[in-house]
Amino acid sequence: MATFLYKLGRLAFRRRHFVALLWVALLTLAGVGAASAPPAGSTSFSIPGTEAQKAFDLLEQRFPGMSADGATARVVFKAPGGEKMTDHDNKAAVEKTVKELRSGSEVVSVADPYAGHAVSGNGTIAYASVKYKVSGMELKDSSKDALKEAAQHARDAGLTVEVGGDALTATPETGSSEVIGIGIAAVVLVITFGSLLAAGFPLLTALIGVGIGVSAITALASALDLGSTTSTLASMIGLAVGIDYALFIVSRYRAELAEGREREEAAGRAVGTAGSAVVFAGLTVVIALVGLSVVNIPMLTKMGIAAAGTVAIAVLIALTLIPALLGYAGRKVKPAGEKSKLLGGGRRPKKLGRPNMGTRWASFVVRRPVAVLLLGVLGLGAAAIPATSLELGLPDDGSQPTSTTQRRAYDLLSEGFGPGFNGPLMVVVDAKDSAHPKKAFTEAGDQIKGLKDVVTVTPAVPNKAGDTATITVVPKSKPSSKTTEDLVHAIRDKGADIAAKTNSKVLVTGSTAMNIDVSQKLNDALLPYLALVVGLAFLLLIVVFRSVLVPLKAALGFLLSVLAALGAVVAVFQWGWLSGLMNVEQTGPVMSMMPIFMVGVVFGLAMDYEVFLVTRMREAFVHGEKPTQAVVTGFRHGARVVTAAAVIMIAVFSGFIGSSEAMVKMIGFGLAIAVFFDAFIVRMAIVPAVLALLGKRAWWLPKWLDRALPNVDVEGEGLRTQSAAAGKDADPDEERELVRA
């Protein structure tokens, strides 16, 4: 592989005009496709195999005009102080608003609060339920504007009016913090390279890669049913890995220049060596993201595949566009240690001097490996403790910022009708095979009324055929509570008794039940997914490192970092620690996708540092250095770059903490803290300590397995063999450098 990538790097360097034009053409094509593509339609949230989804599918068949997946809105009214919603003027204002809402072209129905008994017990709060033909993502802007205008007219009449539900679903905003994250990345790159030009290449190529990836997602959003969160995730991961991969290759290029090689040769060797690490690091990320498909949640599968595509683009850009840009830059990109005139006066690097920070740190670790190992493991273990109280759920309007009308509507409904009113359960009774359908409907309602934590059970509403009915159940507790989850399971348990008595089926659905089923499905899939992803990556790393213990150590270190990161997420988003600093207005259960998502993404990103850092160590070991000295050598060459890459990733992910979307905010924080733990504690401390303790055993591989594995030559041994064979073409100094490297 190293030889192929070496040739690719040299070709891209020489044919830089063609390579640059190719990537510009791809960016233009993707941009045109995004601009001309139809707007994204419905982002369906189907969960195959769950009871809630089966009930939704049944409703579509038996209640064809019901629009079970259509958008809903609750327009909540509150009377001025000292007044009631039943007062003449207030009632007239509400009825006028209801009439105005019914005129919408996409409206299926509007429930009058007074006809439907939707007025609170104390008479101060009322609500009108609006049902639409299409989902919130498909709803036209004109319908959303009409909803807002109707609410404003009621406000003008003196009422407090807020709108809840998914009809006002908006694309999440990341805010200015994302730009700040990119700015921090730029500063880190300038400090790392000591050159504005060299620092600009990783940023430029990462933005091009993200531009192509996100534009392609936008262009295909309608056809493939991709949501706004898909492009956000792709840009988050694509930007981080794009900068890192380019950073690895530019850094190796400057190191090759410092050893006296010509620029084209240096570009080829940089792509042949660091590029090999980039390919395998990228493969682990792609495996982790594509592996999300095993969960069998279509939305999660699409998010993973789209993000994996963006990562693949980042790898290709790093291997081709970076050497092309280095060809354009010429002598403006300085050898390692030499700064540009603007930043360092063009000073040349000192040949002899104090060891760099990476060398000093690695030397310290190999002298005291046991202490460093224990401190690192205990520290991550302490951070992971909050994860033992992890509670999972999906965000609802109660997790929105208090500045939003959805959250204020949620609070008003809780005040007037109880917290459970925000998450009613829909019970579907399928009595098609029952001899007495009406008796089955009555029996189901009576059985549910006898359960604890139930406030209201509405009479059954049958379909035209009379073989299926819906019953609305209002819990006593809020939608995301454990008590409501227990109630859903209790109704389903009762369904077995009802089925035995009446020969009917009882299914529980609704957004609350759907969230509970999603959480359960994700929990059940976590261990199989972990085994699949870690297993495949473990095999891949055996091929890369030609060792059994090094990949095993890498996997165990990853588990430590991801558990510690989950502990931090629980502490902030569930317990409320530092919630003010993170702008978390409402604590509650951790998003149910978070554990499996972090396992996938963090594992892939963690392997970036593992591959880049440890391949340098193996490179030194296979060329004759002692195991502990190889660890120090690996840090001397790679610690600065890995540190810069980790800081950049943390900055990019932290930029998404400012998002208005709870899910994006939590993902941004979780990934940022996970990268911090993995890069600076696991890879920088635990890894060298373990390798120092293992010594030569770290690189042990059974002979039969050594013969069976393909030789991918990540260390670039083939390049050194070529150079040695060329003998006469290489000067003595270069030969000595090749042997020493």
Structure characterization notes:
With 741 residues, the protein is of the alpha+beta class. The protein is 63% helix and 7% strand. The protein has 24 helices and eleven strands. It has helices at 2-14, 16-36, 51-62, 88-102, 141-156, 177-193, 196-224, 228-258, 263-290, 298-329, 341-344, 357-367, 369-384, 405-417, 437-449, 482-502, 511-545, 549-574, 594-621, 627-654, 662-694, 703-708, 717-726, 732-740; strands spanning 72-78, 107-111, 125-132, 160-164, 392-393, 425-430, 454-457, 461-462, 468-475, 505-509, 590-591. Strands 6, 7, 8, 9 and 10 form a five-stranded antiparallel β-sheet that branches. Strands 2-3-1-4 form a four-stranded antiparallel β-sheet, sandwiched between helices. A two-stranded parallel ribbon has the order 5-11. Strand 8 (461-462) and strand 9 form a beta hairpin. Helix 7 (196-224) packs antiparallel against helix 8 (228-258) and helix 17 (511-545) packs parallel to helix 19 (594-621). The longest helix has 35 residues, at 511-545. It is elongated, with a radius of gyration of 30 Å.
